[in-house]
Amino acid sequence: MRTLLIIGPGGSGRTTVAAATALAAARQGRRTLVLSADRTDSLGAALGTATGPDPVQAGEHLTAWRPDPATGFRDGLAALQERAAGALDLLGAARLEAEELTPLPGADELALLRALRDAALSEAHDLVVVDTPPLDRALALLTLPEELRRCLRRLLPPERRAARALRPVLGRLAGVPMPAEWLYEAAARWDVELGAVEAVLADKDTHLRLVAEPGPAGADAVRTATLGLALRGRRPERLVANRTMPEAEAAPGSWLAGLVVQQRKTVEEWQGVHDVQTVPHLGRDPRGTEDLARLAVSAEAGGPSAVDWPVEDRLVRDGVLVWRIPLPGARRDELDLMRRGDELALGAGPFRRVVALPSALRRCTVDGASLREDELRIRFAPDPALWPAGR
Predict the structure, then answer these.
(1) CB-based burial of residue 86 (10 Å sphere; 0-12 exposed, 13-18 middle, 19+ buried)?
(2) What is the pLDDT at residue 184?
(3) pLDDT at residue 71 greater than cutoff 70
(4) In Å, what is the CA distance from 105 to each residue of 69, 93, 143?
(5) 311-382 under CATH 2.30.40.10, yes or no
(6) Which residues contact 146 (CB under 8 A, 6 or more apart)?
């Protein structure tokens, strides 16, 4: 199964491009699922078929689905209240009824990730097209499983589960209830589920496609998205320049001619960096399968989205190992690095990520860093106390 995540700023036509891509794949005979996290049915408006919390057939070989975040949120909180009944009673807390619960911020993203995981496990589709939330939320979505797993393991380390037999004794000594077995079981279950989602997002058959309208705002969004994806070891396989105006219809000296020139300049700049597909402006919002087909959006895979972060061995020449991290668009004054144990906290502009160091670098100390040609190069010097003798 191939997964295609459609990413772009709000108002760029991201949902329309996702629907057109899914339709193109379905018309080629591929079993296609299109997912959306939008609480309003903009996906259904584009397809001409209403979508909702249950998958619907939107055409031959095409299924559309907008997972309902409220259902999973209510079920999960109800189960949590049941498991934590003792602690809640001890605190005198009142139970919440399912009818009074509304999803918290982030519930849409979790529902979308859960649906993506289920689709991958079902193997019922050849292609899953994901209409992600607007750009800032989509970039957070990509790192959500990794960050949640890291937090869970920090709060409830797996090694502490071995001491579960001591918890009743520790509870009596401390005079307060200790974490119950169900809490560790829940953490382990969440770790497995998040790991499954993380595996789907990191899979070589998962690609990211960026959508933007050519112009100053679109160019800024593309730069932001490219940097945010790079920090996560990803890059867009293709850039869709959406709503491009037809040059033939622009009268010289008209406002439309100025817009066409601006779009052409932006597209040319993008073509120097990305694999660009231009999608025409229809003069109206596309509605229904015929309009989507006229957009002629490609469903074929572009280049790989995964980006390697190689470790260069320069021990013989310079006595260091160099970790090379591509960060296109990064600025030197906006970079932030901090090592904490076997992890590196890396900040670039508005983005931040904590990554585990490769095994060889864990036995080294940071010897400096530089940004050259859109690549961050971090130097590591072997720690004599940890580095194997003879190297």
Answers:
(1) exposed
(2) 67
(3) no
(4) 10, 23, 16
(5) no
(6) 198
